[in-house]
Specification:
Layout: E1 3-9, H1 14-18, H2 31-47, E2 53-56, H3 60-72, E3 80-82, H4 99-106, H5 108-116, H6 150-170, E4 175-179, H7 181-192, E5 210-214, E6 226-227, H8 230-241
Parallel strand pairs: 1-4, 2-3, 2-4
Antiparallel strand pairs: 1-5, 5-6
The chain binds 2-phosphoglyceric acid.
């Protein structure tokens, strides 16, 4: 008995296209991102992998990607559950800043520490910033972070993985998780048992379904899973890795 999990990072967002740190800022998909999301759904159809339930973050780029992909796969009607625990990493004071400018100002080493280290969060976002989510009603009653490193994301995503995603897998459902580069990196780190150093080199492409078959212990039968379009995934992974250069 294996369980099928599909991880899908949102299609390119308007801020991905502009090279801006995004985090919890709720930006739209770009035209390219819309096309990527629809193609992601077609790839699911072609592979015969039809989700029974979808989990998304509370951010528009993941929600819209899930809607477009599922519509393309004729699965627009499946149950959906959303949680802030699947949100992108909160990028603190970097939210809204240009990646190239941050790299030029602080240098490659600091830039990469903030961007990809496991446990160094960026500086906190000032209260009242135009890029703050403090007053956002969707997070009312939840402790909104002011900045997060990947470790923080894992700490808040794991309880949701255990309480909401595993039960759906256990019920034999094909589960689609539509989320973000760094929340998916956290889940992948957990699934594949990737160490704190190695995870810094892992990037997730936009809009390409990553399929995992999991064993009875919810561990991958094939490490790293498989992208439904491996060539496009490799090209997109390289582009994500090079952002800011
Ligand atoms: O800006 C962000 O929120 C993320 C994902 O787009 O960027 P990065 O890949 O630099 O972590």
């Amino acid at each position: 008995m294996t369980y099928t999990l599909v991880l899908l990072r949102h299609g390119e967002s308007e801020w991905n296209a502009k090279n801006l740190f995004t985090g919890w800022v709720d930006v739209n998909l770009s035209e390219k991102g819309i096309a990527e999301a629809i193609r992601g759904g077609s790839l699911l159809t072609e592979a015969g992998i039809l989700p029974d339930v979808v989990h998304t973050s509370l951010l528009r780029r993941a929600i819209t990607t899930a809607n477009l992909a599922l519509d393309a796969a004729d699965r627009h009607w499946i149950p959906v559950k959303r949680s802030w625990r699947l949100n992108e990493r909160h990028y603190g004071a970097l939210q809204g800043k240009d990646k190239k400018q941050v790299r030029a100002e602080f240098g490659e080493e600091q830039f990469m520490l903030w961007r990809r280290s496991y446990d160094v969060p960026p500086p906190e976002l000032a209260a009242g910033s135009e890029f703050s989510q403090d007053a956002d009603v969707r997070y009312a009653g939840e402790p909104t972070p002011k900045s997060e490193c990947l470790k923080d994301v894992l700490t808040r995503a794991l309880p949701y993985w255990e309480s909401d995603i595993i039960p759906d897998l256990e019920a034999g459902k094909i589960v689609l998780v539509a989320a973000h580069g760094n929340s998916l990196r956290a889940i992948i780190k957990h699934l594949d048992g990737i160490d704190d150093e190695t995870i810094s080199g892992l990037n997730v492409p936009t809009g390409i379904p990553l399929v995992y078959e999991l064993d009875e212990n919810f561990k991958p039968t094939v490490a790293g899973g498989r992208y439904l379009d491996a060539d496009a995934a490799a090209a997109s992974i390289a582009a994500v890795a090079n952002q800011g250069k």
